[in-house]
Amino acid sequence: MRILITGGAGYIGTELVYALANNNAIESITVYDNLSRGNFNLFLGKPVNSEKVKFVHGELLDSRNLRKVLKDIDIVYHLAAKVTTPFANLDGHIFEQVNHWGTAELMYALEENPVKQLIFVSSTAVYGSTTEPATEATEPRPDSFYSISKHRAEQHVQRLFNKTNAIIIRLGNVYGYSKSMRFDAAINRIMFDAHYTGRITINGTGNQHRSFIHIDKVTFVLSQLLHRNIPSGLYNLTDKTLSILDISEALQNIYPELESFFINQNYAGHDLQVERNSKLLEYVPLADSSLEHELRAFKEQFSFNIGGTGDVYVI
């Protein structure tokens, strides 16, 4: 198998490259990324099979380059996207250009250069705000520039449902340690603040919910899609639905001296819950795990510890 990963140098992409590089059935992995986040950690430190992995610096909107790298590719993981949390409603143009039209450009190229399987990572954000846990049957109601752009991207991918094995994964909020960290993601940012400042800030009541999944589970599922006979379609992938207070409680057990500050306490916040029992889990089951255990493992990856009750050490 010859694999192309758009956005392969990103948070999820980095972990996926390492996982797939150990698969003897995979002949080559091409990482296609514009490095717009300035994250070069995929290229440093922990060795990866250099004979198997190669890097192409490129943009999704560069149709000529896309068609060139798609030659002889069997599987495409489309991870590349503009993701800026929590500023998902700023600069709508860049979300539209990258997430919507960038995906459209890739789909046009794939219609000319068919592959055996396409795996597109979308977002549960397309559901907007929910009053009850969303399922794959829930009508999307995107309510930000980011979620609108991802929903429009899905519509382009759906054109390939009857032409190849095309799978759309609506992913929950991802957290957990990776070489290519995203500290704009909710749990990762809160974890950083708890560890290095001894304080976290909660905007609103703290009762607002989101659906989350650890990056190790995301990597496992994405890598397993190559080996399971999963029909074309749209699937959710989440693990835990948590409120900000749930996260705060787990962190309090890990950091007993942690201080929590509330701002805008009358603000109820945006609520987005997604049912864990997705159709996808019929093909790739997920093991249960404890949030506190995962966050304690995350803590072990920090380079040094805070001192006293929240003092920050600068090195």
From TrEMBL:
Domain NAD-dependent epimerase/dehydratase: residue ranges: 3-228
InterPro entries referenced in this protein's UniProt entry, alphabetically: Epimerase_deHydtase, NAD(P)-bd_dom_sf
Source organism superkingdom: Bacteria
Family stated for the protein in its record: Belongs to the NAD(P)-dependent epimerase/dehydratase family.
Protein name as it appears in the record: SDR family oxidoreductase
Native organism taxonomy: Bacteria, Pseudomonadati, Bacteroidota, Chitinophagia, Chitinophagales
